[in-house]
Amino acid sequence: MKHSKKVVVVGSAGRLGVSLVEALRRDHTVIPLTRGDLDLASPESIEKALGPLDYDSLVIAGALTGVDYCESNELEAFAVNATGPGRISEVSAGKGAHVSYLSTDFVYDGTKRSAYTESDPANPISVYGASKLLGEANVLGSSPKNLVIRVSWLFGRGKSAFPEWIIQKCMAESDVTLPMDKWACPTSCDDLVGALLQLAGGASGEEAAGVCNFCNPEPCSWRDWGQFCIDTAKRAGLPIRCESIRGIPMAEVAAFVAKRPSNSALCIQRFMKLTGKEPPSWQEAVGKHLHQSDLFKGYTSTRTTNV
């Protein structure tokens, strides 16, 4: 988005939405829409919110992302993740506005042994993945100029995500387990915002179109991601009780309702070709995030006060 534009951000109160609005406001006029302003599950709400607006671009950052919740609430999942984005894209097409839709690695079935490219067949094995795949089709069906960005394991500022959760769990418990046979790529929210800005404009000022993967390379197991987080916390002086996370098969996680793809690592060669940029490794991104997080700052502040 090189040239100044009017940009609508749907889901502006979420983790990605907050960071995106903050970044866009440096160069663009932003119209932030929270769930109270636009309910993705309600066509009437969508018409009421977008109908009067004049805008150049729109980003759908909101979604129903609880994988297990979606599995048990299929109608709601498809309404929020597929039907709503489709209607938003139809309204936006009528205004000549570009739409960017955030999607997921869960559109893949996990059977591939290497990282997935955008041209690999999508074959979701969960309601969540199926709803997002239909959302992709609806968005691209409204205009071939629209953009779908598939991401995985998103973390960042705002409410606690996986890195904070696993550190707090390992501070409280001595025996912690994570799946060792689930592979993907963590994605920094800050890096994703930068990627969105590059894809939605770049040097040419023209938006990218079609499907594009984005994440912080390279792939890792769920267990290894967690281990890196607690190793980082331990080096920073946080009181870690569980120093080594035990790897277990995904099949042993009783809490899972929905199936997860065992491998959903994303290949980001198209993103790098489009932008000429390579995102930092997930280790660098996670380390930066943790050292700037409220969890680390809060503990450091408490420890300093008590000295």
Task: Report on this structure.
Helix content is 41%, strand content 14%. The termini are far apart. It has a domain at 6-160 and 185-219 and 262-282: NAD(P)-binding Rossmann-like Domain (Rossmann fold, 3-Layer(aba) Sandwich), CATH 3.40.50.720. By secondary structure, the protein is of the alpha/beta class. The mean pLDDT is 94. It has 11 helices and 12 strands. The strands form 4 sheets. It has a 6-stranded parallel β-sheet, sandwiched between helices. Strand 4, helix 5 (127-142) and strand 5 form a beta-alpha-beta unit.
Which tags fit this structure?
307 residues, Rossmann fold, globular, 12 strands, 14% strand, alpha/beta, single chain
Brief summary of the model shown:
This protein has 307 residues and is an alpha/beta fold.
Strand and helix layout:
Layout: E1 6-10, H1 15-24, E2 29-33, H2 43-50, E3 57-60, H3 67-72, H4 74-94, E4 98-104, H5 127-142, E5 147-151, E6 154-155, H6 162-172, E7 177-179, E8 183-184, E9 187-188, H7 189-199, E10 210-213, E11 220-221, H8 222-235, E12 246-248, H9 269-275, H10 282-291, H11 294-306
Parallel strand pairs: 1-2, 1-3, 3-4, 4-5, 5-10, 6-9, 7-12
Antiparallel strand pairs: 8-11
Helix pairs in contact: 1-7, 2-4, 4-5, 6-8, 8-10
